């Protein structure tokens, strides 16, 4: 592969980024809309918490659970009462509302400038409490406390930790000051508390979270100089460490499970190949050496293997190799092409983009039997990666409006995270607790 080809790749990426411009300014936060819910959604009601709180904790927790599509949250305007403790519940009245599960709670000052919240999960038909919880939160931690309420309820029913304290990163583009402004944004999983961690007049691509959630790796372009740089940014301090700004492509970073290494695509030797970079020793190791384009590498959760995209078979497909570059095998054969794969947190599944008759859609592959499920509707879906508990996938949905979306791994439940302007390249961070 020649250096001229690498420059063409750079030019193409830049051209596409400009062509995808949305005319309106990006708003402050994403808006979550439920588009499809599971037919077996769990009926639950969360009554307003008693006590004087500056945040409606019960409503935030309700929104969290409803956003998964796994819970059917009862409208509080139709509640037969607003109890704040189990003793206040008239179970006969609640049974007439077809509510199987009820959450009641209250809050009081904890004497340290914060609040102590207590709440119970009630089985309406058995007429009893099945779980009681207590949370202490500082005055500025009430939204996190509300997410914790939802996490505890979610884990009680689903059996896995909830992801409501996790964060996401994504990239926005908008017109500003007569030109384009690109922003790398980090927010709560639901789009609240967005913060710009890097901003540029030139494109930004491929954000990737470190396993501990403290750093983001990403690619920043310098269009005038015709170069790109792969960076790691400390989210707390804002400090940026440049990993590679070699000639050609510096792209597609992904962290090892222990956070000590990055895999990336580099073409400074002429051909786009996959390399491993040791963040402690600065040692660079070439993992692939093939005449095809090898890119979009991602580590398995146990660190033993890496999946990547290669067109060595004629069209882009997903391949797997040992983390030292050995034993390369092709994993995907269905569809016109498959690319941008990443592992589920438990290593049992892959998600990737499959091109077929309905366009580009998100697929989930069971690695035990190689069965593939198409979980999104297309026609231009991209950048999938798993929620930190493995129950859902976030991806970019392109079309008349470009937005982020989530879908359960069985494809039954969907939600949309929308805002004005261009939103793309989502990455889901770790659980957050």
- What is the highest CATH level, the class of the largest domain? Mainly Beta
Number of strands: 30
Number of helices: 4
Structural class: mainly beta
The largest pleated sheet is described as: 5 strands, antiparallel
- From the N-terminal CA to the C-terminal CA, the straight-line distance is 45 Å
Provide the CATH superfamily of the largest domain.
Answer: TolB, C-terminal domain
Oligomer: single chain
- Number of structural domains: 2
Helical fraction: 10-25%
Strand order of the largest sheet: 1-29-28-27-26
Q: Average pLDDT, to the nearest integer?
A: 90
- Output the radius of gyration: 23 Å
Keywords: Cell cycle, Cell division, Periplasm, Signal
Biased composition (Polar residues): 404-421
Function: Part of the Tol-Pal system, which plays a role in outer membrane invagination during cell division and is important for maintaining outer membrane integrity.
InterPro entries: 6-blade_b-propeller_TolB-like, Tol-Pal_TolB, TolB_N, WD40
């Amino acid at each position: 592969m020649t250096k001229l080809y690498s420059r063409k790749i750079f030019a193409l990426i830049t051209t596409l980024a400009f062509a995808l411009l949305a005319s309106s300014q990006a708003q402050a936060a994403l808006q979550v809309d439920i588009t499809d819910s599971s037919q077996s959604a769990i009926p639950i009601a969360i009554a307003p918490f008693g006590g004087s709180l500056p945040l409606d904790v019960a409503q935030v927790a309700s929104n969290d659970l409803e956003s998964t599509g796994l819970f059917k949250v009862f409208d509080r305007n139709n509640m037969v009462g607003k109890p704040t403790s189990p003793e206040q519940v008239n179970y006969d009245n609640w049974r007439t509302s077809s509510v199987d599960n009820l959450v009641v709670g209250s809050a009081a000052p904890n004497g340290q400038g914060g609040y102590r919240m207590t709440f119970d999960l009630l089985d309406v038909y058995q007429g009893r409490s099945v779980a009681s919880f207590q949370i202490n939160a500082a005055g500025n931690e009430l939204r996190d406390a509300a997410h914790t309420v939802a996490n505890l309820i979610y884990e009680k029913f689903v059996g896995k930790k909830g992801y409501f304290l996790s964060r996401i990163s994504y990239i926005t583009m908008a017109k500003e000051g007569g030109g384009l402004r690109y922003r790398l944004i980090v927010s709560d999983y639901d789009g609240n508390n967005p913060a710009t961690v890097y901003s540029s007049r030139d494109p930004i691509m491929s954000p990737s979270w470190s396993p501990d959630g403290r750093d983001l790796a990403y690619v920043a372009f310098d269009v005038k100089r015709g170069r790109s740089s792969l960076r790691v940014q400390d989210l707390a301090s804002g400090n940026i460490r440049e990993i590679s700004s070699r000639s050609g492509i510096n792209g597609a970073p992904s962290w090892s499970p222990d956070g000590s290494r990055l895999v990336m695509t580099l073409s400074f030797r002429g051909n786009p190949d996959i390399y491993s970079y040791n963040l402690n020793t600065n040692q660079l190791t070439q993992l692939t050496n093939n005449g095809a384009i090898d890119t979009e590498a991602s580590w398995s959760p146990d660190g033993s293997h890496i999946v990547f995209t290669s067109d060595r078979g004629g069209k882009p497909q997903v391949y797997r190799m040992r983390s030292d570059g050995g034993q390369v095998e092709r994993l995907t054969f269905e569809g016109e092409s498959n690319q941008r794969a990443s592992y589920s947190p438990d290593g049992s599944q892959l998600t990737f983009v499959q091109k077929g008759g309905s366009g580009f859609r998100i697929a989930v592959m069971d690695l035990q039997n190689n069965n593939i499920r198409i979980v999104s509707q297309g026609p231009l879906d991209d950048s999938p990666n798993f929620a930190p508990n493995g129950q859902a996938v976030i991806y970019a949905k392109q079309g008349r409006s470009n937005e982020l979306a989530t879908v359960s791994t069985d494809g039954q439940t969907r939600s949309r995270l929308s805002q004005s302007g261009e939103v793309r390249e989502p990455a889901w961070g770790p659980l957050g607790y």
